[in-house]
Specification:
The structure is a single chain. With 126 residues, this protein is an alpha+beta fold. It has five helices and five strands; from the N terminus they run αααββββαβα. The chain has one domain: Orthogonal Bundle (Arc Repressor Mutant, subunit A), CATH 1.10.10. Strand 1 and strand 2 form a beta hairpin. The longest helix is centred in the N-terminal third of the chain and has 13 residues. Bound molecules: zinc ion (2 copies).
């Protein structure tokens, strides 16, 4: 099931809700239930293969495949495009800041909202 959920998210390329994933997979498996999808998503997140975008309550397949990274998502509010980037410096700095208070972070997701280059260009033609 994890492989199937990951394949759906990869194929889509943009963020999907758990129910959208369920809808796609129900075509071939009409008895599929939401808890099955949630379990698969939780395991994929745990393994770093999928990230959850808190602000959108949606899931995306990891595009950089680097374990232990802090994904930085640029979310276009006009077209919904999501780009994933990684910064080792930010990952290290976040761990350092959290470590100072003895806090043990389980996962971080950084979300930056704005407009992608394409939408920006559309709005302000040169
Ligand atoms: Zn990632
Ligand atoms: Zn855009």
């Amino acid at each position: 099931m994890q492989a199937e959920v990951l394949a759906v998210l990869r194929k889509c390329g943009s963020p999907m809700s758990a129910y959208e994933v369920l809808d796609r997979l129900r075509d071939g498996n009409p008895r599929l239930a939401p808890p099955t999808i949630y379990r698969a998503l939780a395991a994929l997140i745990e393994g770093g293969r999928v990230h959850r975008l808190e602000s959108l309550k949606a899931f995306v397949a990891c595009r950089c495949e680097q374990h232990g990274h802090v994904p930085i998502f640029s979310i276009c509010e006009a077209c919904g495009t999501v780009e994933e980037a990684v910064s080792r410096r930010i990952t290290n700095e976040l761990s350092r800041i959290a470590g100072q208070s003895g806090f043990a972070p389980a996962r971080h997701v950084i979300e930056v909202h704005g407009q992608c280059a394409r939408c920006e260009a559309k709005e302000a033609p040169a």
